[in-house]
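Thread: quick sanity check before group meeting

JM: Hey all, I'm pulling together slides for Thursday and realized we never actually wrote out the predicted structure for the chain we discussed last week. Dropping the sequence here so it's in one place. If anyone has concerns about the input, flag it before I start.
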Amino acid sequence: MKPTSFTRRSRHTGAAVAVSVLLLAVTGCSENGRERAYTTPRSLCGTTVDSEELSKFLPPGEKVATKKTVDSSTATRCAVSVDGKRIVYTAQEWWNDMTGFEFAQGMTLDELDHQTDDGHFAYSGNQAFGKTQDCRNGKDQVLYTAIQATGSKHQDAAAMKKLITAYTRAVERSGACR
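JM (edit): ok, ran it. Output follows.
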């Protein structure tokens, strides 16, 4: 039996619909799998950071920017934005001696799932807080650190622990540790 023009049109229409659905699926994946057009910073407002660990918390986009938001004798804070949206926030603050967990409680209302045995670090999937070693000012205060990736969709407690540990060690080696 010879196919009619209606049958041929139905096959072509079916193929066109299948191709359209496939193109929509590929386009959707391309949007979700966007690449970074920017280079992940290696320094946040003058403090070295593990760019590989930081990159895990930064979304794809065109442009990354860092900006010092507070610069005083008691605190330095830095914001990291991607395409104008604030993603990560860091802090270095002088406080009276306490554990990293106690410092964290004053910086966030979110639950922190983890802390180190020595009490120097407390962290969750998108926030981490640290206590420096041997960084004291003239008022016998200790320098504390914070990284809050609350603008990130990524949650990774192990990566956040590595990030805050490296960041805190960089602060200890910097001029901020007087």
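AS: nice. The CA atoms of residues 117 and 144 lie 17 Å apart. The first helix runs from residue 5 to 32.
JM: adding both to the slides.
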